[in-house]
Amino acid sequence: MSLTFEIAGRKIGPGYPTYVIAEISANHNGSLDRTKNLIARAKDVGADAVKIQTYTADTMTIAHDGPGFVVEGGPWKGRNLHELYDKAHMPWEWHAPLFERAREVGITLFSTPFDSSAVRLLEGLQAPAYKIASFELTDIPLIAEVARTGKPMIMSTGMASREEIADAINAARGANATGVVLLHCVSGYPSQPSESNLRNIGNLAETFQVVAGLSDHTLGSAVSVAAAALGASVIEKHFTLHRADGGEDSHFSLEPKEFKRLCEEVRQSWEAVGQVTFEKQASESGHADYRRSLYVVENIAADEPFTTKNVRAIRPGFGLAPKHYDRVIGSVAATNLSRGTPLKLEHLKSK
């Protein structure tokens, strides 16, 4: 069964270069122009796609100060949920000009919807794919609604149990999803490399028969590069212009130079994995001539025996392979041999 599919003409899956998504999230900092610039810069640094999020404070929660409505830990400790989402959300009237900007610069743009109204908005803008956030992986009705659009789905698994992931996959497939990616994810902001457990990527792919990848919330790019080496077909990473500018997600986002390096190293990592082969590579051309082989290191007369003193395994490699050493030692020379002669089988006198 082929797992590959396309987003805006780009093939995604095993055998294709890792698909890198620049996540803008709340790094717009309240500026449409900044967001347009982020889209253009993402294209410049080598991202395959840009992702935004589509919600309002009222579609996420209610204005309330009761238990659970104020964040108790992490980078947003003490923040009221409604106020946090109101500041972080991408204004809906920005979506059309952002999709237009993405078309202008030639990069794919899609979004994470958080409710039905967001799906309707994005369908009207012909979004080519959808993301399901890790916190919404248990929202089975939302997953089914997104799947019914017929667009590829990328779902993050942060905090989810194996059973919850199975429920999400079954909901997507039950609604005839055309392509599904599961992104292994640790929903910490930031998360630690030691928490990453990247072997989950291969397990997700095998267990659920999907394309698998990583949504990376660690600082830096090392974990993403390692994920590509372990078979991640998709990497998602937060992107900002300058962390010093602030923003709700800036502290664990990469700046343009860092993101460019991530794109380059992720693709090098993917190329480096390659395939199982024992054929000589182009860069090895001619180097086999300098492996060790058996040479005459002292003049030897015909009928004189080969000894550990007059035969050695040295470089270059034009003589017999060293594996013949025990056969040679004690044999007799068939002819006179001068020092520096690469030893051949015909130099051994037949018994």
Descriptive notes:
The chain is α/β, with parallel strands linked by helices and 351 residues long. It folds into 2 domains: 11-55 and 90-273, Alpha-Beta Barrel (TIM Barrel); 282-347, Type Iii Antifreeze Protein Isoform Hplc 12 (Alpha-Beta Complex), CATH 3.90.1210.10. It has helices at 32-45, 57-60, 81-88, 95-105, 116-124, 140-147, 162-174, 199-208, 222-229, 256-273, 325-328; strands spanning 5-7, 10-12, 19-23, 49-54, 108-113, 130-132, 153-156, 180-185, 211-216, 234-238, 293-296, 311-314. β9, α9 and β10 (234-238) form a beta-alpha-beta unit.
Name of the CATH first level of the largest domain:
Alpha Beta
What is the fold named in CATH at topology level of the largest domain? TIM Barrel
Helix-strand pattern: EEEHEHHHEHEHEHEHEHEHEEH
Number of strands: 12
Short description:
The chain is α/β, with parallel strands linked by helices.
SSE order and pairing:
Elements: E1 5-7, E2 10-12, E3 19-23, H1 32-45, E4 49-54, H2 57-60, H3 81-88, H4 95-105, E5 108-113, H5 116-124, E6 130-132, H6 140-147, E7 153-156, H7 162-174, E8 180-185, H8 199-208, E9 211-216, H9 222-229, E10 234-238, H10 256-273, E11 293-296, E12 311-314, H11 325-328
Please supply descriptive tags for the structure shown above.
351 residues; alpha/beta; TIM Barrel; 2 domains; eight-stranded parallel sheet
